TrEMBL record:
PROSITE patterns listed in its UniProt record: ABC_TRANSPORTER_2
Domain ABC transporter residue range list: 8-238
Tagged with keyword Transmembrane helix: no
Descriptive protein name: Multiple sugar transport system ATP-binding protein
GO cellular component: ATP-binding cassette (ABC) transporter complex, substrate-binding subunit-containing
InterPro entries: AAA+_ATPase (IPR003593), ABC_transporter-like_ATP-bd (IPR003439), ABC_transpr_MalK/UgpC-like (IPR047641), Mo/tungstate-bd_C_term_dom (IPR008995), NA-bd_OB-fold (IPR012340), P-loop_NTPase (IPR027417)
PANTHER family: MALTODEXTRIN IMPORT ATP-BINDING PROTEIN MSMX, OSMOPROTECTIVE COMPOUNDS UPTAKE ATP-BINDING PROTEIN GGTA
Source domain of life: Bacteria
Alphabetic keyword roster: ATP-binding, Nucleotide-binding, Sugar transport, Transport
GO molecular function: ATP binding; ATP hydrolysis activity
SMART domains for this protein: AAA
Amino acid sequence: MGDPMSGTWLKNVTVIRDGRQVLRDVTLRAADGELLVVLGSSGSGKSTLLRVLAGLNQVGSGTVIINGRDVTKLPPGERRVAMVFETSALIPFLDVSRNLGWGLRAQRLPDTEVKERVKDLARQLRLSRLLPRRPDDLSTGERGLVGIGHALVQRPDVFLLDEPLAGLDAAERPRVRQEIVHIVRSLGATTFFVTHDQAEGLAVADRVALLHDGAVVQVGTPRELYERPVDLFAAGFVGTPPIGLLPARLVSAGGQAAFTVGNRTLPLWRAVPPPLRDHVGREVVLGLRAEDVHDPTAGNDPDSVALAAVVREVEYTGRRNVVTVAVGAPPITARGSEVSGDKSRGATLRSFFPPRSVIRPGAAVTVAVKASSAHVFDAVTGRALWHP
Ligand SMILES: Nc1ncnc2c1ncn2[C@@H]1O[C@H](COP(=O)(O)OP(=O)(O)OP(=O)(O)O)[C@@H](O)[C@H]1O
């Protein structure tokens, strides 16, 4: 990105509604042709961010740039973007074919080309059989597909997709998702893809921007968000099942770092890493992904330490059981920790057990963890200090 204006982005954008900041100084840039997922829970400001790009929401302050062009003061019609809304507005008295084509006809494309493009797109999205029907004669999911089609047929510079898969059933979602990704990639269009579903976001994104309370928490590749979350909020939001959290104290003995958890000690088997030096003797929160929490009877890793725990929940998924256990440790109060656990229950970890294991809520078990697999967070601010 040599040109400082290139790409499609918001620069220091603030949006105020009813006296509340719904976007707070948001700076977020998608490179040309990038598929950027905007991820966040309900009310985090995702739709507002798209509406600002589309020109449907005024900014309080800041700049909006589309394909290197400052469009902050331009009306929606002059921004060359195509938007799919969560509930798409179809024209009731036009059949699907005309609904898909009217945007192109408005651009004065020749009729034969409009028909050709509509036909191709309908085939790609597998909605050819719906072309003669009117919106009233479609299911919610089918209307959703037509809404997606209406945006995708346009070949704009920038696609704005707001929960495009919301109306579709679970079985159809992965297929349509792949089709959308295929289409926007083959057109080379920059795409903002809004979702509250982290698994969906990770699956399609070049990069993910995680939004919380109107502010950008972290921007990175799916892998960066999973492996190097900037704080407890990001760590808890990204990944299934949610990351497990353990309160601990960082100690240093004979120059070697370790974490104490209750009456157990988890040695790191190395000197205190420089980013942790200021935290020796202080409380931290350890974050452990389910794949790093083991059934100690299944094998013997000499670096692991067994912790006593009580089974809270068992979810059978076919390939394995996802087991939530409570470890005898006090609840965690750090900022952002609420997304990955229930505060009232104390520290919880998740682990994968074999599908045939007989394990029931209330059972006493031990789980094996090791310090070198743990993400380390500040116990007060929730900021990440160290990643495995
Ligand atoms: N017209 C409005 N007037 C006042 N506040 C609004 C208006 N529209 C949205 N908001 C508020 O702005 C915040 C962000 O809303 P937005 O729709 O951008 O969130 P979102 O992340 O897209 O949520 P969802 O996933 O539920 O659609 C919310 O707190 C919402 O209540």
